[in-house]
Structure formats: structure tokens, C-alpha cells
Amino acid sequence: MCLILLAYDRRSARPLVIAANRDEFYARPAHAARYWDGAPQVFGGRDLEAGGTWLGVSTGGRFAALTNYTDFDLPVAPAASRGDLTRGFLEGNESAVSYAAAVDGARYQGFNLIVFDGTDLLYSSNRTGDARTLDSGVYGLTNTWLGDEWPKTKHGTAALARIAAEADADAVLELMLEESEGYLADGHEIESARRATPAFLRGEEYGTRASTAVIFEDDRIEFVEQLYGPMGAPGGRVAETIRIRPPRP
User: Fold this and answer.
1) How far is CA 17 from CA 28, 74, 99, 235, in A?
2) Each residue of 73-117: pLDDT tens digit?
3) Which of 118, 119, 157 is nearest to 138 (CA)?
4) What pTM value is reported for the model?
5) Starting from the edge strand earliest in sequence, which strands make up the sheet with 206-217, in order?
6) Which of 41, 46, 68, 191 has the fewest Cβ atoms within 10 Å of its own Cβ atom?
7) Residue 85 in 3-state DSSP?
8) What pLDDT is stored for residue 49 in this prediction?
9) 240 and 33 in contact (C-beta within 8 Å)?
């Protein structure tokens, strides 16, 4: 179950700070974050099965991230790749509002989409029907609707709120290593194992494959990705400073 934390302050010189964990099968092929062949303005990881991305930025100051929306009760049907949603936004110049409004959600299995065009931060989901511009604040998103308070989103947003104004990328990444079993002791019955999962997952076949910190500040984007293998073994690390160059009209 993936996790995206966002601290957004549209009036600040540091308008957006992101901490994210990508949980996936280790066998699914993917590139680590890099500038893309064929779209050199895009920087991010890339899924090699379908060609899209779970999270990326662009030199134009854009950001996009995606989580699957867990649909246990819906049949699996042929659909377009959800990674195309983030790829299309990062490769284009359309505003976040216009882009989200034009998405045909019926073509995809369940998704949550976050897009930022340098001015507006927008959340969209084809399972809730949302397509809304977000106010300044701190948000946590996993595999249900934005605002669903899973223990890891509740704890994660509180932790990010404390450090977002000044933290460096390493401090942001540190938040995503949380494995506390205390998440289970909230005084409520455990609805299912998926709701009790910590932020960082260790497994032999499936687990947290990448933690990413993204900090928008002034005219640059700091992007740091730490990769992991089975059972959380540390892998490669990518660190890039991306200078924002607004696209030509």
C-alpha cells in the first residue's frame, strides 16, 4: 500500500514538500529516477511494463503522483495504464485543473491522482468523483480517498507538518521508514490487514521499493530517491537538483 505525504503552502518560497513510498512487487521492472528518453523535461522513475510513472517532476515546475485505489469488490476489466495519467501531465503544459477535468476515469481501474502545475495542487479520483483544487495544508494519501485517516497517514502528516518548513531531503526520507507496530493500538478493531500496515513495508516478494523526497523551493526542485530490495535491503540512491525553467509560450 503506497503512501504520499504532501505539505503545501502556496504563499511560501517552499510551496510543496513531498514524502512518498512506492510499494510494489520487486519483480516488476522499473527504472530508477532519471531524465526520460524522449521527454527530457521529465525526471522520475519509470515503470518498464507500461511506460508510465508513479511519481515525477518536470523542469517546468510540474509534479505528479499516483496511487491505486483498492477495489476489492469490483471486477478487473481491461483498462488503460494508470501510469499514463502522470506521464501525460508531466509531458504536457496544461493546467492542473484543465488536465484533471479532461481525464476519462472510465478508462482506468481505480486511481488517486495528484498534480501540481506550479500554482495549483489538485486531487482527482475516478472512485470518489473528486477533482478538486487543494488549499494550503498537509495531506496524506494511500490507497483510498484523500482524507481517509489510516494510522500511517495520520502519523505521517503530523510528522511532516513539524519539519516541512526547514527540513532537508534526508530528514523527509527518514519519515518514510516508520514501521511502528503501535499503529495497531488505536483502540479500534482492526478492519483489515491493509489498514494496519506501517509506512515502510518489508517482504520477500512485495514491499517498499522506493522512498522519495521532493522539495520545491524558489527556482529549484530537490529530488532524492532511495531504492530498496527484498526485506528492505538498501539499494541505489538518486539525488538531483532540477532548475525550474518555465516553458516557452
Assistant:
1) 28, 34, 22, 23
2) 665 665 788 999 999 999 999 999 999 999 999 899 899 999 999
3) 157
4) 0.92
5) 137-141, 3-8, 16-25, 206-217, 220-228, 234-243
6) 191
7) helix
8) 87
9) yes
